[in-house]
Protein backbone atom coordinates (compact mmCIF):
# COMPACT_ATOMS: atom_id res chain seq x y z
CA UNK A 1 0.00 0.00 0.00
CA UNK A 2 1.65 3.23 -1.15
CA UNK A 3 0.17 5.26 1.68
CA UNK A 4 1.83 3.27 4.46
CA UNK A 5 5.42 3.45 3.19
CA UNK A 6 6.22 6.86 4.74
CA UNK A 7 3.47 6.96 7.32
CA UNK A 8 5.56 6.14 10.40
CA UNK A 9 8.27 8.69 9.61
CA UNK A 10 8.17 11.64 12.00
CA UNK A 11 4.54 11.19 13.00
CA UNK A 12 3.72 12.53 16.46
CA UNK A 13 0.55 10.51 17.11
CA UNK A 14 1.32 6.79 16.59
CA UNK A 15 -1.95 5.63 18.16
CA UNK A 16 -3.95 7.49 15.51
CA UNK A 17 -1.74 6.07 12.77
CA UNK A 18 -2.10 2.56 14.16
CA UNK A 19 -5.86 2.98 14.32
CA UNK A 20 -6.01 3.99 10.65
CA UNK A 21 -3.67 1.14 9.70
CA UNK A 22 -5.85 -1.43 11.48
CA UNK A 23 -9.02 -0.01 9.94
CA UNK A 24 -7.44 -0.25 6.51
CA UNK A 25 -6.33 -3.85 7.05
CA UNK A 26 -9.80 -4.78 8.27
CA UNK A 27 -11.44 -3.02 5.32
CA UNK A 28 -13.18 -0.53 7.59
CA UNK A 29 -11.47 2.63 6.34
CA UNK A 30 -13.80 4.61 4.13
CA UNK A 31 -12.75 6.33 0.93
CA UNK A 32 -11.03 9.64 1.78
CA UNK A 33 -12.23 13.05 0.77
CA UNK A 34 -10.71 16.52 0.65
CA UNK A 35 -12.57 19.15 2.68
CA UNK A 36 -11.38 22.61 1.61
CA UNK A 37 -12.18 25.62 3.77
CA UNK A 38 -12.74 29.04 2.27
CA UNK A 39 -9.41 30.85 2.01
CA UNK A 40 -8.49 34.51 2.06
CA UNK A 41 -5.85 36.86 0.75
CA UNK A 42 -4.82 40.31 -0.42
CA UNK A 43 -3.05 41.51 -3.55
CA UNK A 44 0.08 39.45 -2.89
CA UNK A 45 -0.63 36.63 -0.42
CA UNK A 46 -3.31 33.96 -0.28
CA UNK A 47 -3.87 31.45 2.54
CA UNK A 48 -5.88 28.24 2.23
CA UNK A 49 -6.66 25.45 4.72
CA UNK A 50 -8.44 22.14 4.59
CA UNK A 51 -8.49 18.54 5.78
CA UNK A 52 -8.27 15.05 4.34
CA UNK A 53 -10.66 12.74 6.18
CA UNK A 54 -12.51 9.52 5.54
CA UNK A 55 -15.86 10.13 3.89
CA UNK A 56 -18.67 9.24 6.30
CA UNK A 57 -21.34 10.19 3.77
CA UNK A 58 -22.77 13.26 5.52
CA UNK A 59 -25.84 14.33 3.56
CA UNK A 60 -27.27 17.82 3.31
CA UNK A 61 -29.80 18.48 6.10
CA UNK A 62 -33.55 18.49 5.53
CA UNK A 63 -36.29 20.55 7.16
CA UNK A 64 -38.07 17.56 8.66
CA UNK A 65 -35.11 15.36 9.41
CA UNK A 66 -35.57 12.71 12.09
CA UNK A 67 -33.93 13.36 15.45
CA UNK A 68 -31.88 10.18 15.16
CA UNK A 69 -30.54 11.39 11.79
CA UNK A 70 -29.36 14.63 13.43
CA UNK A 71 -27.68 12.69 16.23
CA UNK A 72 -25.88 10.39 13.78
CA UNK A 73 -24.74 13.38 11.70
CA UNK A 74 -23.24 15.05 14.80
CA UNK A 75 -21.43 11.86 15.81
CA UNK A 76 -20.08 11.43 12.27
CA UNK A 77 -18.62 14.94 12.31
CA UNK A 78 -16.56 14.10 15.36
CA UNK A 79 -15.76 10.45 14.57
CA UNK A 80 -14.41 10.62 11.01
CA UNK A 81 -10.74 9.75 11.04
CA UNK A 82 -8.32 12.33 9.70
CA UNK A 83 -5.74 11.07 7.23
CA UNK A 84 -2.19 12.25 8.11
CA UNK A 85 0.95 12.44 5.98
CA UNK A 86 -0.67 12.34 2.51
CA UNK A 87 0.11 14.65 -0.37
CA UNK A 88 -2.36 17.25 -1.60
CA UNK A 89 -1.95 19.42 -4.69
CA UNK A 90 -3.61 22.83 -5.07
CA UNK A 91 -3.99 25.02 -8.16
CA UNK A 92 -4.87 28.71 -7.87
CA UNK A 93 -4.60 31.54 -10.39
CA UNK A 94 -1.86 29.99 -12.52
CA UNK A 95 0.17 28.58 -9.62
CA UNK A 96 0.46 24.97 -8.42
CA UNK A 97 1.74 23.79 -5.03
CA UNK A 98 1.97 20.53 -3.09
CA UNK A 99 1.98 19.84 0.63
CA UNK A 100 1.36 17.01 3.11
CA UNK A 101 -1.31 16.75 5.75
CA UNK A 102 -0.09 16.99 9.34
CA UNK A 103 -0.69 14.49 12.14
CA UNK A 104 -4.30 15.68 12.49
CA UNK A 105 -5.07 15.54 8.78
CA UNK A 106 -4.92 19.30 8.15
CA UNK A 107 -3.17 20.91 5.22
CA UNK A 108 -2.42 24.54 4.45
CA UNK A 109 -1.12 26.50 1.46
CA UNK A 110 0.42 29.93 1.12
CA UNK A 111 0.50 31.33 -2.40
CA UNK A 112 2.60 34.43 -2.99
CA UNK A 113 1.93 36.62 -6.04
CA UNK A 114 4.40 39.40 -5.26
CA UNK A 115 6.08 40.46 -8.50
CA UNK A 116 3.93 38.12 -10.58
CA UNK A 117 1.95 39.17 -13.64
CA UNK A 118 -1.34 37.72 -12.39
CA UNK A 119 -3.85 40.24 -11.13
CA UNK A 120 -5.57 38.36 -8.34
CA UNK A 121 -7.79 41.34 -7.53
CA UNK A 122 -9.91 40.86 -10.66
CA UNK A 123 -12.60 39.02 -8.65
CA UNK A 124 -13.67 38.90 -5.02
CA UNK A 125 -13.79 35.09 -4.93
CA UNK A 126 -11.38 32.85 -6.79
CA UNK A 127 -11.74 29.07 -7.34
CA UNK A 128 -8.98 26.78 -6.07
CA UNK A 129 -8.70 23.16 -7.19
CA UNK A 130 -7.37 20.31 -5.04
CA UNK A 131 -6.21 16.77 -5.82
CA UNK A 132 -5.22 13.95 -3.48
CA UNK A 133 -1.98 12.41 -4.78
CA UNK A 134 -1.63 9.30 -2.58
CA UNK A 135 -3.53 6.03 -2.62
CA UNK A 136 -5.07 5.30 0.77
CA UNK A 137 -7.58 2.50 0.15
CA UNK A 138 -7.76 -0.26 -2.46
CA UNK A 139 -9.34 0.71 -5.78
CA UNK A 140 -9.45 4.31 -4.69
CA UNK A 141 -11.02 6.64 -7.27
CA UNK A 142 -9.44 9.95 -8.18
CA UNK A 143 -10.08 12.39 -5.34
CA UNK A 144 -10.69 16.03 -6.28
CA UNK A 145 -12.29 19.03 -4.60
CA UNK A 146 -12.88 22.70 -5.41
CA UNK A 147 -12.77 25.50 -2.88
CA UNK A 148 -12.92 29.28 -2.88
CA UNK A 149 -10.63 32.11 -1.84
CA UNK A 150 -11.76 35.62 -0.90
CA UNK A 151 -9.32 38.16 -2.31
CA UNK A 152 -9.82 41.52 -0.60
CA UNK A 153 -9.02 44.72 -2.40
CA UNK A 154 -7.77 47.87 -0.60
CA UNK A 155 -10.71 49.66 -2.24
CA UNK A 156 -13.13 47.82 0.05
CA UNK A 157 -13.15 50.13 3.07
CA UNK A 158 -14.06 47.84 5.92
CA UNK A 159 -13.63 44.25 7.17
CA UNK A 160 -16.33 42.73 9.38
CA UNK A 161 -15.41 40.04 11.92
CA UNK A 162 -18.11 38.18 13.82
CA UNK A 163 -18.28 35.46 16.41
CA UNK A 164 -20.83 32.71 15.70
CA UNK A 165 -22.27 31.06 18.83
CA UNK A 166 -24.79 33.30 20.60
CA UNK A 167 -23.82 36.15 18.28
CA UNK A 168 -25.26 35.11 14.92
CA UNK A 169 -26.60 31.66 15.84
CA UNK A 170 -28.53 30.74 18.99
CA UNK A 171 -26.26 28.24 20.78
CA UNK A 172 -26.70 28.60 24.56
CA UNK A 173 -22.93 28.34 24.97
CA UNK A 174 -23.08 29.17 28.68
CA UNK A 175 -25.68 26.46 29.42
CA UNK A 176 -24.17 23.02 28.91
CA UNK A 177 -27.39 20.96 28.74
CA UNK A 178 -29.22 23.26 26.32
CA UNK A 179 -26.09 23.56 24.19
CA UNK A 180 -25.71 19.76 23.98
CA UNK A 181 -29.38 19.39 23.11
CA UNK A 182 -29.01 21.78 20.16
CA UNK A 183 -25.86 20.05 18.92
CA UNK A 184 -27.46 16.60 18.97
CA UNK A 185 -31.06 17.26 17.96
CA UNK A 186 -30.87 20.17 15.50
CA UNK A 187 -29.30 20.66 12.08
CA UNK A 188 -28.35 23.60 9.86
CA UNK A 189 -31.96 24.13 8.78
CA UNK A 190 -33.51 23.86 12.23
CA UNK A 191 -30.94 25.88 14.17
CA UNK A 192 -32.07 29.50 14.66
CA UNK A 193 -30.30 32.77 13.89
CA UNK A 194 -30.97 35.81 16.05
CA UNK A 195 -33.81 37.94 14.64
CA UNK A 196 -32.56 40.45 12.09
CA UNK A 197 -28.96 39.23 12.22
CA UNK A 198 -28.68 38.12 8.59
CA UNK A 199 -30.17 41.40 7.29
CA UNK A 200 -27.87 43.43 9.52
CA UNK A 201 -24.80 41.49 8.40
CA UNK A 202 -25.78 41.90 4.76
CA UNK A 203 -26.25 45.63 5.33
CA UNK A 204 -22.75 45.85 6.83
CA UNK A 205 -21.40 44.00 3.81
CA UNK A 206 -23.23 46.37 1.45
CA UNK A 207 -22.08 49.43 3.41
CA UNK A 208 -23.39 52.97 3.25
CA UNK A 209 -23.51 52.98 -0.56
CA UNK A 210 -25.00 49.47 -0.75
CA UNK A 211 -22.19 48.57 -3.18
CA UNK A 212 -19.13 48.21 -0.94
CA UNK A 213 -19.19 44.40 -0.72
CA UNK A 214 -17.23 44.49 2.55
CA UNK A 215 -15.74 41.07 3.42
CA UNK A 216 -16.85 38.95 6.37
CA UNK A 217 -14.82 36.68 8.62
CA UNK A 218 -16.46 34.36 11.16
CA UNK A 219 -13.96 33.72 13.97
CA UNK A 220 -15.20 31.15 16.45
CA UNK A 221 -14.06 28.71 19.11
CA UNK A 222 -16.10 26.01 17.38
CA UNK A 223 -14.06 23.24 15.78
CA UNK A 224 -13.46 22.64 12.08
CA UNK A 225 -15.52 19.44 12.42
CA UNK A 226 -18.62 21.66 12.42
CA UNK A 227 -17.62 23.46 9.22
CA UNK A 228 -20.27 21.85 7.00
CA UNK A 229 -23.04 22.60 9.52
CA UNK A 230 -21.97 26.23 9.91
CA UNK A 231 -21.52 26.79 6.18
CA UNK A 232 -24.98 25.33 5.47
CA UNK A 233 -26.53 27.36 8.29
CA UNK A 234 -25.15 30.67 7.03
CA UNK A 235 -26.12 29.89 3.44
CA UNK A 236 -29.64 28.77 4.36
CA UNK A 237 -30.25 31.86 6.50
CA UNK A 238 -28.87 34.23 3.84
CA UNK A 239 -25.91 35.64 5.69
CA UNK A 240 -23.22 37.17 3.49
CA UNK A 241 -20.70 34.60 2.33
CA UNK A 242 -17.61 34.79 4.50
CA UNK A 243 -14.43 33.04 5.56
CA UNK A 244 -14.55 30.79 8.63
CA UNK A 245 -11.63 30.78 11.05
CA UNK A 246 -12.31 27.96 13.49
CA UNK A 247 -10.30 25.85 15.91
CA UNK A 248 -8.67 22.44 15.61
CA UNK A 249 -10.25 19.56 17.46
CA UNK A 250 -7.63 18.28 19.88
CA UNK A 251 -9.99 16.10 21.91
CA UNK A 252 -11.68 12.82 21.08
CA UNK A 253 -15.29 12.26 20.07
CA UNK A 254 -16.09 11.62 23.74
CA UNK A 255 -15.47 15.30 24.47
CA UNK A 256 -17.39 16.74 21.51
CA UNK A 257 -19.92 18.28 23.91
CA UNK A 258 -17.17 20.69 24.95
CA UNK A 259 -17.12 22.13 21.42
CA UNK A 260 -16.71 25.90 21.46
CA UNK A 261 -15.42 25.98 25.02
CA UNK A 262 -11.97 26.22 26.55
CA UNK A 263 -9.46 28.96 25.87
CA UNK A 264 -10.36 31.61 23.31
CA UNK A 265 -6.80 32.91 22.83
CA UNK A 266 -6.86 31.74 19.23
CA UNK A 267 -9.45 34.45 18.49
CA UNK A 268 -7.02 37.15 19.53
CA UNK A 269 -4.26 35.60 17.42
CA UNK A 270 -6.50 35.35 14.35
CA UNK A 271 -7.68 38.95 14.75
CA UNK A 272 -4.08 40.17 14.85
CA UNK A 273 -3.34 38.16 11.72
CA UNK A 274 -6.22 39.80 9.86
CA UNK A 275 -5.33 43.31 11.00
CA UNK A 276 -1.73 42.81 9.88
CA UNK A 277 -2.76 41.30 6.55
CA UNK A 278 -5.16 44.17 5.76
CA UNK A 279 -3.43 47.30 7.07
CA UNK A 280 -5.45 49.63 4.81
CA UNK A 281 -8.78 48.54 6.25
CA UNK A 282 -10.77 49.48 9.31
CA UNK A 283 -12.69 46.75 11.16
CA UNK A 284 -16.01 46.16 12.88
CA UNK A 285 -16.08 43.39 15.51
CA UNK A 286 -19.27 41.59 16.55
CA UNK A 287 -19.58 39.22 19.50
CA UNK A 288 -21.47 38.41 22.68
CA UNK A 289 -20.89 38.82 26.41
CA UNK A 290 -21.32 35.12 27.23
CA UNK A 291 -17.62 34.31 27.04
CA UNK A 292 -14.51 36.41 26.33
CA UNK A 293 -15.42 38.52 23.28
CA UNK A 294 -15.56 41.88 25.15
CA UNK A 295 -12.10 41.36 26.67
CA UNK A 296 -10.56 40.15 23.40
CA UNK A 297 -12.12 42.88 21.26
CA UNK A 298 -11.25 45.76 23.58
CA UNK A 299 -7.68 44.48 23.90
CA UNK A 300 -7.28 44.32 20.12
CA UNK A 301 -8.80 47.81 19.72
CA UNK A 302 -6.22 49.28 22.08
CA UNK A 303 -3.37 47.42 20.42
CA UNK A 304 -4.43 48.72 16.98
CA UNK A 305 -5.56 52.30 17.70
CA UNK A 306 -7.77 53.84 15.06
CA UNK A 307 -8.34 50.53 13.26
CA UNK A 308 -11.50 49.27 15.03
CA UNK A 309 -14.48 51.45 14.13
CA UNK A 310 -16.99 49.69 16.36
CA UNK A 311 -17.47 46.75 18.72
CA UNK A 312 -21.00 45.33 18.91
CA UNK A 313 -21.65 42.94 21.78
CA UNK A 314 -24.89 41.01 22.16
CA UNK A 315 -25.55 41.20 25.88
CA UNK A 316 -26.14 37.84 27.52
CA UNK A 317 -24.94 38.62 31.03
CA UNK A 318 -26.80 41.16 33.16
CA UNK A 319 -23.82 43.43 33.78
CA UNK A 320 -21.99 45.31 31.05
CA UNK A 321 -18.30 44.57 30.55
CA UNK A 322 -17.47 48.29 30.66
CA UNK A 323 -19.32 48.62 33.96
CA UNK A 324 -16.82 46.17 35.40
CA UNK A 325 -13.88 47.86 33.62
CA UNK A 326 -14.71 51.56 33.75
CA UNK A 327 -11.20 52.64 32.73
CA UNK A 328 -11.71 51.10 29.28
CA UNK A 329 -14.46 53.53 28.29
CA UNK A 330 -12.12 56.51 27.98
CA UNK A 331 -9.34 54.37 26.52
CA UNK A 332 -11.61 53.16 23.71
CA UNK A 333 -12.84 56.69 23.12
CA UNK A 334 -9.23 57.86 22.76
CA UNK A 335 -8.63 55.34 19.94
CA UNK A 336 -11.93 56.22 18.19
CA UNK A 337 -13.62 52.89 18.86
CA UNK A 338 -17.33 52.75 19.65
CA UNK A 339 -18.28 50.01 22.12
CA UNK A 340 -21.95 49.07 22.28
CA UNK A 341 -23.69 46.28 24.20
CA UNK A 342 -27.12 45.58 22.74
CA UNK A 343 -30.17 43.54 23.63
CA UNK A 344 -31.12 42.96 20.01
CA UNK A 345 -29.91 43.50 16.45
CA UNK A 346 -32.07 46.57 15.92
CA UNK A 347 -30.05 48.55 18.47
CA UNK A 348 -26.83 47.76 16.65
CA UNK A 349 -28.40 48.69 13.30
CA UNK A 350 -29.44 52.13 14.61
CA UNK A 351 -25.88 52.85 15.76
CA UNK A 352 -24.42 51.56 12.49
CA UNK A 353 -26.70 53.80 10.44
CA UNK A 354 -25.84 56.88 12.52
CA UNK A 355 -22.14 56.19 11.93
CA UNK A 356 -22.55 55.58 8.18
CA UNK A 357 -21.63 51.90 8.36
CA UNK A 358 -24.91 50.94 6.71
CA UNK A 359 -27.61 52.67 4.65
CA UNK A 360 -30.21 54.47 6.79
CA UNK A 361 -33.22 52.73 5.26
CA UNK A 362 -31.98 49.31 6.40
CA UNK A 363 -32.92 50.02 10.03
CA UNK A 364 -36.63 49.78 9.24
CA UNK A 365 -36.13 46.30 7.75
CA UNK A 366 -34.43 44.84 10.84
Average of per-residue pLDDT values = 84
Helix content: 25-40%
What is the CA-based Rg, rounded?
A: 21 Å
Number of helices: 10
Query: What's the count of strands?
Result: 14
Overall spatial form? globular
Structural class: alpha/beta
CATH class of the largest domain: Alpha Beta
Give the biggest sheet: 8 strands, mixed
Question: How would you characterize the overall build of this protein?
Answer:
- With 366 residues, the chain is an alpha/beta fold.
- It has two domains: 2-151, Immunoglobulins (Immunoglobulin-like); 158-365, Rossmann fold.
- The chain has helices at residues 14-26, 67-79, 176-185, 197-206, 227-236, 265-277, 293-303, 321-324, 327-334, 345-354; strands at 32-36, 39-41, 45-54, 87-92, 95-100, 106-112, 125-132, 144-151, 158-162, 216-223, 243-247, 282-288, 308-314, 338-342.
- Strands 1, 2, 3, 4, 5, 6, 7 and 8 form an eight-stranded mixed β-sheet that branches.
- Mean pLDDT is 84; it is low at 1-12 and 252-257.
Essential attributes:
366 residues; 10 helices; globular; alpha/beta; Immunoglobulin-like; 2 domains; eight-stranded mixed sheet; Rossmann fold; 28% helix
Topology readout:
Blueprint: H1 14-26, E1 32-36, E2 39-41, E3 45-54, H2 67-79, E4 87-92, E5 95-100, E6 106-112, E7 125-132, E8 144-151, E9 158-162, H3 176-185, H4 197-206, E10 216-223, H5 227-236, E11 243-247, H6 265-277, E12 282-288, H7 293-303, E13 308-314, H8 321-324, H9 327-334, E14 338-342, H10 345-354
Parallel strand pairs: 2-8, 9-10, 9-12, 10-11, 12-13, 13-14
Antiparallel strand pairs: 1-3, 2-3, 3-6, 4-5, 4-7, 7-8
